[in-house]
Amino acid sequence: MASTSLPRALSGIQPTSASFHLGNYIGALRQWVALQETHEVFYFLADLHSLTLEPPLPADLTYRSRSAAAQLIAAGVNPERSAIFLQSHVGGHTQLSWVLECLTGYGEAQRMTQFKDKMARGAAVSLGLLTYPTLQAADILIYQANHVPVGEDQRQHVELTRNLAQRFNARYGETFVVPDVYITKEAAKILDLQDPSAKMSKSLPEAGTLNLLDDPSALAKKIKRAVTDTETEIRYDPATKPGVSNLLAILAAVTDRSVPALEAEFSGQGYGALKNAVADAVVAFAEPFNSRVAELMADPAEIDRILARGAEQAQPVAAATVTDVYERVGFVPPLGRR
To answer: Is 224 a catalytic residue?
Structure first.
């Protein structure tokens, strides 16, 4: 991956479980793949962020980190065109985070929606959970990214990032690119199969989540048990028919067809026919994905080499930003850098 004059994009995903779910792929990873064609891209696995709630066992975090890298590649992220790396492999993330924490108001951090939501659910509150959005801001600003592809639920965190960049620039001089949120309008938000009022998430019960590495029979069973409604009409209407609309969105995404075309195709048919079609399409997508991940995971040393190469690409960009920031705030540089 050579440096280019293309705009730069940066995004990350947490290795919080062994498998990404379908919502991750449709809502984020497809956009990551597409951005490779138009941007210089840095994609990192947010292993530092994975400690903010209940830290996984060390062996589990190691496995999940490699599995996440394998899944990015299986989804179409090309390590020859994108820097894929572990957040913990580039020390500048935490170095910059401290400076930004000192610019972040306590009330500002408390107002973050995800922090408030986790508090309301009774999550164990660590200092890391409170400062997580500031580390996320450092993740973005350290690469001077122009665009940050995120889901709508992360918009507030990117707005905090923009505020901190502007605050630092105003105090110390122009230093950071102020990034723009990059949300693809056509990217459907995939909902939980058992609770279609909520986005598909690892934090919800397993029955409503389509893990991409699930056994095909498990995927089909979850889809066929998806909550719909008491009507029979197959119509896309998220307000009144969220369950049916979610199934149509899933089918449209994995088959590259439009929702109106699917509505016409299933007109007059029952929900059973729709669920069967969704199950068949999701399994047809997941099986080759699963096989590719298994192939990659059979050679963990190669995954580690890919991650090391990505970190080597990211490191000089991150280091240059940290050096500039530290000089601007007045830290005395080490003798070797004077």
So the answer is: no
